[in-house]
Specification:
The complex is a heterodimer of chains A (about 120) and B (about 210). Chain A has about 120 residues and is α+β, with helices and mostly antiparallel strands. Helix content of chain A is about 60%, strand content about 15%. In chain B, the strands form 2 sheets. Chain B has a two-stranded antiparallel ribbon. In chain B, strands 2-3 form a two-stranded antiparallel ribbon. The chains are: A alpha+beta (about 120), B mainly alpha (about 210).
């Protein structure tokens, strides 16, 4: 049974880690907004609503972790392509380390639960 | 392209724009534009533009209220508590003119325009509806509108006392007068309530959760 506090916790965890998932996706290749949103939404459990990605992208741009360029597109109007900045790389690497440690620690406890 | 689909999309975008009202203008415009472009791209992918597909698309995008909530979180827009400045502005606008004729109301106007809690449009509304606040109807209410106004006049030359009655106002004019006074009372009160509800959230970019 899921308690409402748990929902809030999950939401918080998602919000905290989502930006790093975005940074990680951009680390592999530059993408445009729509593409990014769809890639994230395909993975279960990450985003509840696609629209909420856009405020995040805006924030990442403002914080200098990503930068965007407009590129002509054959499919219609020019698209805004996002790319990782050096600061973004650094943030992603930092997170990777922390996350690995954190995940292992939580797994260590949570994995072996059996009721006595 | 189906017009029902267009209508759904328009409604959605309008709602989004409304929900983002308390964000800085640039951010708001940016978000609306990006999401509009997202919708356009998603629609281009669709086989048909049926209402069902459009609604699914918009559902996936999410409720505008949720997007706005996320935007507020990301940009650190916090609900504002009305400061003394705003409360003083509203009070002075409404009754300042009574306490300190005209000057009191002017103080209210100055405070209104100093504050950053309202848009220019709201400030203009607060200034011109109505000037003087409740002073205007109060002043007018004191002007008695009688049915008749009689006074005694002594002719200096003959010493004869005559009664002169100035024609009074007709009943319909009296009613009109009453309606006017009531309207003049309600308008400033309505404006004050409107302004109180329209106070904007304070924008604090530094302590946003990243």
């Amino acid at each position: 049974m899921v308690v409402s506090g748990q929902d809030a916790l999950l939401a918080q965890m998602r919000r905290g880690t989502l930006q790093y998932c975005v940074l990680a996706l951009l680390a592999r290749e530059e993408r445009y907004g729509f593409d990014l949103v769809r890639a994230l939404a395909e993975t279960d459990g990450m985003v509840t609503s696609e629209g909420t990605i856009y405020p995040l992208l805006s924030r990442l741009r403002r914080d200098g972790l990503v930068e965007s360029t407009w590129q002509e597109s054959t499919a219609g109007p020019p698209r805004r392509y996002y790319r990782l900045t050096d600061a973004g790389w650094a943030a992603l690497e930092g997170f990777r380390l922390e996350w690995g440690r954190f995940r292992d620690a939580v797994d260590h406890f949570v994995e072996r639960t059996e009721r006595r | 392209m189906s017009t029902t689909a267009d209508r759904h999309v328009d409604q959605y975008v309008k709602r989004l724009d409304a929900e983002l009202a308390d964000l800085p203008r640039a951010r708001r415009r940016e978000l609306v534009q990006e999401i509009s472009e997202h919708i356009a791209e998603a629609r281009a992918d669709l086989e048909t533009q049926s209402e069902a597909e459009i609604r699914t698309l918009l559902d996936r995008l999410g409720d505008p209220a949720d997007i706005a909530h996320e935007a507020r979180e990301r940009f650190g827009v916090r609900p504002r508590k009305p400061r003394a400045l705003e409360i003083a502005a509203l009070v002075m606008l409404l009754v300042g003119g009574i306490v300190l004729p005209i000057v009191g109301w002017l103080v209210g106007v100055v405070l209104l325009w100093i504050s950053d809690a309202w848009s220019t449009r709201d400030k203009l509304l607060g200034t011109f509806v109505l000037p003087g606040g409740l002073l205007a109807p109060l002043g007018l209410g004191l002007v008695s509108v009688d049915a008749e106004n009689c006074s005694q006049v002594i002719q200096p030359a003959t010493g004869v006392v005559t009664e002169v009655c100035t024609g009074g106002t007709s009943t319909s004019l009296q009613i009109l007068w009453l309606v006017l006074v009531v309207a003049l009372i309600l308008a400033p009160i309505a404006t004050t309530v409107y302004l109180a509800r329209r106070m904007r959230r304070r924008y604090q970019p530094s302590d946003a959760s990243a």
